[in-house]
Amino acid sequence: MTGIWPAATPLEIALVAAVALIAGVVRGFSGFGSALMIVPVMAAVMDPKIAVPAATVVHIITSIQLLPEAIRDAEWERTVPLSVAGVVAMPAGAWFLATQDAGLLRQVIGVLIVVFAIVMLRGWRYTGRTRGWATAIAGAVGGLIVGAALIGGPPVIMFLMAGPYKASENRAAIILFFLLVQIFALLTYWYQGLMVPAVIGAGLYILPSLAIGTLIGQRLFRSASEEGLRRFALLFLLVIGVATLLV
Question: C-alpha 125: how far from its chain's center?
């Protein structure tokens, strides 16, 4: 295929679409995790410089499905400093990627994710009130790691999960954090000349199944318990941490 369609076989397209469906369910349910599932598969069957911007565009579009619930449930005292700090810190992470050993950073973050996920699965939670400056630091760390190693989500999610807030409030903060960071990332891709026509075709490969999966995940979330959602998120983070150490 040429023009807007990246070169891929029908089997590869079907694989990407199937992964996007599963990733959409996870995202609709927990608010995160879909990009971590979709991008490696897309990057394996097409140019990563097409796959990453395409996945970002589609995630921004499908965020429309999640926004009403996120805005309704958001606890803005945490959400605003978390998101703004993440965006501000992203360029520094990109500089680290260009000049330092980002692979070592990925390994360190992988270890921390595994350790803290296990600790929190065993029942530990911070019961005090989270301060604005602490939230901003968590967002900045997430933004730094997004820019440097593309795995900035887990540190932010673990910070939110460790606190005393409701699952719906954590999910809303996660959704809004990723939306703002992804919009900023998209502007960065455009500035770097990565928004080529093939990004449209790659996005169309995954848009329908991601949107359907997100809808299914939303419905599952509405019937889930607080503890069930928290345990799912922590187990999924544990899997991400292990995968980060092995890749």
Answer: 23
**Residue 134 belongs to what H/E stretch?**
helix 132-149
**Cβ-based neighbour number of residue 190 at 10 Å:** 11
Q: pLDDT tens across 154-179, in order?
A: 778 878 877 778 888 989 998 998 88
Sign of the CA dihedral with 73 first, then 79, 84, and 86 last: negative
CA 35 to chain centre: 5
Q: How many residues does the chain have?
A: 247
How far is Cα 112 from Cα 109, in angstroms, rounded to an integer?
5
Structure tokens belonging to residue 196 = 């080529």
């599932």: which residue's tokens?
37
How many Å apart are CA 199 and CA 57, to the nearest integer? Answer: 9
Dump pLDDT digits (tens) for 82-93: 999 988 987 887
- 48 Cβ partners below 8 Å, 6+ apart? 39, 42
Give 206-234 pLDDT, tens digit per residue. 999 999 999 999 998 888 887 787 788 78
- The pTM of the full predicted model, rounded to 2 decimals, is 0.79
Q: How far is 74 from 169, CA to CA, in rounded Å?
A: 5
pLDDT of residue 1: 46
